[in-house]
Amino acid sequence: MISSLQRQPPSRPRPVGRPGPVDAAVAAAVFACSFPGIVVTLPGGPELPWGPGTALTGVSCVALLWHRCHPRATVVMTVLCATAMAGIGHVLSVLLLGPLMVALHSLALRTDRKTANSFTFGGIALLVSTALIVGPAGEPLILKLVGPAAWLVLPTSLGTATRLRGAYLEAVQARAEHAERTREEEARRRVAEERMRIARDLHDVVAHHLVLAKLQAGAVARQLPARPDEAARIVTDLTGTTASALRELKATVGLLRHSDHPDLPTGTTTPGLAQLPELAASFQHAGLAVAVTVVGEPRPLSAGVDLTAYRIAQEALTNVTKHAAARSAEVRLTYSATGVVLAVTDEGPGKRPAGPSSSPRPSGGYGLIGMRERAHSVGGRFRAEHRGQGGFGVVTELPLQAEQPEQAEQAKQAGL
After folding, report:
1. CA separation, residue 56 to residues 34, 36, 45 (Å)
2. In what order do the strands lie in the sheet with 392-399?
3. Can you tell me the mean pLDDT for 91-104?
């Protein structure tokens, strides 16, 4: 009977006064099992009338109809009925205690351990005291003490164990659902980060080469009437610029294809600091002289850090070409045991006679935002500021090896 109750869901109490058919069936079954306990007497003991015991057992079983919605009241009612039967001389057998055992099991399922234990031991104390005072004189003392205690502790323990097991299964299911949501959120976050990375790569490649192509085309238009030979040379350089743009675009798209199909070649080597001299030379035809300075012993960088440093230098020089009134810029690489510092500075306003104001504003556009995001993505730090002696500069501190995403995120939140 108790095992059948264990399979009932403990968390859906019925409305008051609306017991279900299952509750009625349980009450009838318990009454059928408890009725024989009314006629149990000690050998040589007096015969007791069935009427009072039957009535009290019936009241206890009727109280079980509300064991789901009022478990405490049900326990109190069944304890009082069992105590009354003990007071009129009935032996507290397991059959007679059946309604109280079912009520205690239901209480342990639906309340906490402290409440269930309090009601259980309170009922045991009341029943044992009654049995000792007015119980059958010939009943062994051990049956008066051990019997009720053992039979009432058992359903309470089973109910508590069932409730704890249900809570454990609910916790496991909640953790599984949380892990599933976390995986979905992590997948969406990675997709968003990949989109941002693709956007930064395409922005760097397209912006750099289109700016150079625009400046070279303007130089052709100026030089063509008076210096056709120089114009022809610039046109040749313009062809090389567009070809380089196509190669880098092909390399970027090839990397995306390579992530889904490892067997397909990317077609072009990923750029890095080794190509920094070629990058500096490409700005000469745009009227910008770029000096590259290396301080310290160059150290090998991971592929992600190497590409990040190259893209930041490319974007910084492109911003100088687009926004700064400068004819020269410097790229300084400072290597240390823990990382590399990349600094890109321009000479400031006033060096180009007829031009706009010098430096790009830190809030003007997405170039600086993209450089900062690139630095943070590998665990580095980035700052951009106006220089005291004029001009503008960006400084990026990068580790030798890219940090894990969790470490990079912590560094970003810390404001590094």
Report:
1. 11, 13, 21
2. 289-295, 328-335, 339-346, 392-399, 381-386
3. 88
Structural domain spans, the chain: 2-178, 273-416
Supply the pLDDT for residue 104: 93
Residue 234 pLDDT level (bands cut at 50, 70, 90): low
For residue 70, which of 23, 12, 16 has the smallest C-alpha distance? 16
| Structural class in CATH, domain 273-416 | alpha beta
- Separation of alpha carbons 162 and 116, rounded Å: 13
Q: Indicate the SS3 state at residue 107.
A: helix
Other CB atoms within 10 Å distance of the CB of residue 12: 8
Q: Can you tell me the distance from the alpha carbon of 101 to that of 295, in angstroms, rounded to the nearest whole number?
A: 84
Global confidence as pTM: 0.47
Q: Which of 309, 372, 373, 367 lies closest to 342 in space, CA to CA?
A: 309
Distance from the Cα of residue 371 to its chain's centroid: 28
- Under DSSP, is residue 270 helix (H, G, I), strand (E, B) or coil? coil
Name the amino acid, one letter, at 228.
P
First to last CA, the chain: 65
Residue 379 contacts residue 399 (beta carbons within 8 Å): yes
CB 148 within 8 A of CB 92: yes
Q: Are 376 and 408 in contact (CB under 8 A)?
A: yes
